[in-house]
UniProtKB/TrEMBL annotation, chain A:
Cellular component, GO, one term: plasma membrane
InterPro entries listed in its UniProt record: ABC_transporter_permease, MetI-like, MetI-like_sf
Name of protein: Xylobiose transport system permease protein
Keyword Metal-binding: no
From TrEMBL, chain B:
Gene3D superfamilies from the UniProt entry: MetI-like
Annotated protein name in UniProt: Xylobiose transport system permease protein
Taxonomic lineage from the root: Bacteria, Bacillati, Actinomycetota, Actinomycetes, Streptosporangiales
Biased segments, Low complexity type: 1-13
Organism: Spinactinospora alkalitolerans
Keywords, sorted A to Z: Cell membrane, Membrane, Transmembrane, Transmembrane helix, Transport
InterPro entries: MetI-like, MetI-like_sf
Intracellular or extracellular location(s): Cell membrane
Domain ABC transmembrane type-1: 101-292
Region described as Disordered: spans on this chain: 1-37
Length: 308, 306
């Protein structure tokens, strides 16, 4: 890896005569910084997962003990399943709603401005704030749901109190938080679709659902990929919502992987075991993002106007 | 606003006729041309449902903050208060909310400065350099997208402690900036790719060196990318919860998100007071939304905005 910039590159490029080009040295400060705070910690997590450490003294090497424990820990198995379930559930709830709202919002409705402004509110709030709001709203004693719930056939007391209810609340709250963002993505994507395609379809007498299926969906391919990737990565690293809304409970029924890492590491001071949990998260996230880089073709220009 | 070809045509929700309509080619002479021929009642109905899903909780939130806390427990959250009061807001401020805001602003400014200073040269190198090293570096940053902050928080905690920074604001700034870098590098390389080779040639013919080319050509022409990056980094810093939670401890170093979390622990029964603090926490971003909506939206979307 050469770091010094060659003064002149005598190599012939198809881009005209070569001009002075920056060397890798321009990227060095950022690379070192990133190395120090993100990449080296990754290596450290791997190392710490083979140690026993309470967070204060010196980590003691204990071999694969943590990993053996992790392999046999039912709470951890449940956590991985919950994380995956949350990812799939979030995607299944958020994608269709975001897409329909986004495509609708790209249209010519008159009242869009007002609606868009209201839709936008969740984006102004941090995850912590949103979790707190919903915790207050779902409060079994004083929350609005406790009062209007019976009309809707919802019993708020059982919502956060039952395993499936609490899980559903997490999926719902994350949808409430992130749908506006993905709606914007889809709106942007839908705006890029050339109107001529729709006009042609109209002339051919294609019905609305068919137009959606054969024009909108294929044209939104890139948007779907981008949005899905953001959703998946987001769901894997969910934390504040679970910490504030359910505390991983009732029992351990909403203890997803990042929450377990926090619980064992920073509440139970078992940093070695928590590191093993954290590394599990790295493995999953790396697999996901490798797929994501493949699919989205980041680093190459994507044409949104194919065949035009 | 230099429109890049790859950017979506203003994804921002636009009041009135937005860019979507402005960018339309010559309209057909007969009848209103509709970009979408979906006079779609079903979609409209769906949008209305979602309006309720978002609107009702927001309404309940705002109403609750205007209630006296003792009244809130009796009369319930959905009835408009008979005598609206702002005491919950004053209470939140008296409880040190402004200190949290100050800390958050400091952290945010630090993160934005650090990220912009570090990431802009990387973008330049990735787009222009012809050495193998830079390609490798770009991949290295891309891989960084895969590292979730939760996964490395334990070693980061160790490193911060070893550096003697535990429980200081820089402890939050450094890792937050590091984790914002990959997305920022992506955004910047995207926007710098649009600078044409001819301009570089012209700079070179003028005898400009690397540094001058960078400051006179690259930085001005990638302004929109840089502002997106700045907003993205600012939002990351503003909303970050995990780093402050683990890396700071004392009240003096508390940021807003942690302040809310802490209030939540204290105010078991004073829900209006807590919710008032939540509303206050959204005010700065709301102001930013009013001032620079498009930058905010692009920043929110990060990679997706490309």
């Amino acid at each position: 890896m050469s770091v010094s910039a060659p003064l002149r590159t005598p190599r012939r490029r198809p881009g005209g005569p070569s001009v002075g080009r920056p060397g890798a040295v321009w990227a060095l400060p950022a690379a070192l910084f990133f190395l120090f705070f993100a990449v080296i910690p990754m290596g450290l997590v791997a190392y710490l997962s083979f140690t026993s450490w309470n967070g204060l003294g010196t980590p003691q090497f204990v071999g694969a003990q943590n990993w053996q424990r992790l392999a046999g820990d039912p709470v951890m198995h449940q956590g991985v399943l919950l994380s995956l379930g949350l990812t799939v559930g979030s995607w299944a709830v958020q994608t269709p709603i975001s897409m329909l709202l986004g495509v609708w919002a790209a249209g010519p409705q008159r009242n869009r401005a007002v609606l868009a402004a209201v839709f936008f509110v969740p984006l102004l709030l941090s995850s912590a704030a949103i979790a707190i709001i919903w915790k207050a709203l779902l409060d079994p004693n004083f929350g609005p749901l406790a009062r209007i719930g019976p009309w809707l056939g919802l019993d708020s007391v059982s919502l956060l109190g039952s395993p499936s209810g609490a899980f559903a609340v997490i999926v719902f709250v994350s949808a409430w938080q992130f749908i506006p963002l993905h709606m914007l993505l889809y709106q942007g994507g839908a705006r890029q679709i050339p109107a001529s395609l729709y006009q042609a379809a109209e002339i051919d007498g294609a019905s609305v659902p068919r137009r959606f299926l054969h024009i909108t969906l294929p044209q939104l391919r890139n948007t779907i990929t981008t949005s899905s990737v953001l959703m998946v990565v987001g769901s894997l690293t969910y934390f504040e919502t679970v910490l504030i809304l359910t505390g991983g409970g009732p029992g351990t029924s909403t203890s997803i992987v990042p929450y377990l890492m926090y619980r064992f590491g920073f509440m139970g001071y078992e940093m070695g075991y928590a590191s093993a949990i954290a590394f599990t998260l790295v493995i999953v996230a790396t697999a996901v993002s490798l797929v994501m880089v493949r699919l989205t073709g980041f680093g190459s220009m994507r044409s949104t106007r194919e065949g035009m | 606003m230099a429109p890049t070809r790859s950017a979506p045509a203003a994804a921002a929700p636009d009041p009135g006729p937005g860019p979507g309509t402005a960018r339309r080619r010559a309209p057909e002479p007969r009848r209103r041309t509709r970009r979408r021929t979906r006079a779609n009642p079903l979609a409209g109905f769906g949008a209305f449902i979602w309006l309720l899903v978002v609107g009702v909780p927001v309404y309940a939130l705002l109403v609750a903050t205007l209630q006296r806390s003792d009244r809130y427990l009796e009369s319930g959250p959905l009835t408009p208060p008979g005598d609206p009061t702002l005491e919950n807001y004053t209470k939140a401020i008296e409880n040190g909310f402004l200190v949290f805001v100050g800390n958050t602003l400091l952290v945010t400014a630090g993160v934005v400065a650090l990220v912009v200073v570090l990431a802009v040269p990387v973008g330049y190198a990735v787009v222009r350099a012809r050495t193998r090293g830079t390609d490798a570096l770009f991949r290295f940053f891309l891989l960084g997208l895969a590292i979730p902050a939760q996964a490395v928080i334990i070693p980061v905690y160790l490193i911060i402690r070893e550096l003697g920074l535990y429980d200081t604001l820089p402890a939050i700034v450094l890792p937050t900036a590091a984790f914002a870098l990959p997305v920022c590098v992506l955004i910047l390389t995207g926007s710098m790719r649009d600078i044409s080779d001819d301009l570089y040639e012209a700079m070179a013919l003028d005898g400009a060196g690397q540094v001058r080319t960078f400051f006179r050509l690259v930085v001005p022409l990638s302004r929109s990318g840089i502002s997106t990056v700045a907003v993205y980094a600012a939002l990351q810093a503003w909303n970050n919860f995990l780093f402050p939670l683990i890396l700071t401890q004392s009240r003096e170093q508390r940021v807003i998100t942690l302040g809310l979390f802490d209030f939540q622990g204290q105010y078991r029964v004073d829900i209006p007071g807590l919710l008032a603090a939540v509303v206050l926490s959204a005010v700065p971003i709301f102001v930013m939304y009013l001032i620079a909506r498009r930058s905010l939206v692009n920043g929110l979307m990060g990679v997706g905005g490309k």
